[in-house]
Amino acid sequence: MKKVVKDIMECKRCSLYKKRILPTVYNGNTKSKIVFIGEAPGKNEDESGTPFCGRAGKILNELLESINLKREDVYVTNIIKCRPPKNRDPKKTEINSCAYFLERELEIIKPEIICPLGRFSSKYILNKYFKKNFEIGEVHGKVFKIDNLRIIPMYHPAFAIYNNKKINILKKDFKKI
Ligand code: URA
């Protein structure tokens, strides 16, 4: 994992490295069998290099607590390691080049449960295993089984920042974990 982190720090696979402060590397427990995959760093994450350390991170913590888990119990990463300018959506080309690191992380962790958070990581992960395009609105909270792996796509925690009712949808989906 140290080598993966070093390679992320030095990455120039796409142009996002030019404008970011720090890339986000993982956060949490490398021995965990539960992996959360977010979208991309925001301002706080860009400054700290830690995924989900800002407002969306607080919601993620609350969701984990609702099922008696802590950040130390799970492995948290992003599909895009560098902040896109002005928090714009990641481009397909950026996702495809950055997923190289996610794949290396998954190879090391060998998770039993993968929870992609939001449409970009959900699309990537479901497409990888099922070669099919799914909409997050249709698949959130559903459990997809592939041998010993369970994939449970979730809405992005930021979904609940401005709407308290939405946290209940997320909490219900988190119970599946
Ligand atoms: N949103 C994400 O998807 N990832 C982060 O690290 C922070 C906010």
Describe the structure in brief.
The chain is α/β, with parallel strands linked by helices and 177 residues long. It has 7 helices and 6 strands; from the N terminus they run αββααβαβααββα.
Structure description:
Helix content is 39%, strand content 12%. The protein has 177 residues and is of the alpha/beta class. The protein has one domain: Uracil-DNA glycosylase-like domain (Uracil-DNA Glycosylase, subunit E). The protein has a 6-stranded mixed sheet with strand order 1-3-2-4-6-5. α3 (55-66) packs across α7 (166-174). It is globular, with a radius of gyration of 15 Å. The mean pLDDT is 96. The structure holds uracil. Uracil (URA) binds at residues 24, 38-42, 45, 51-52, 56, 78, 158.
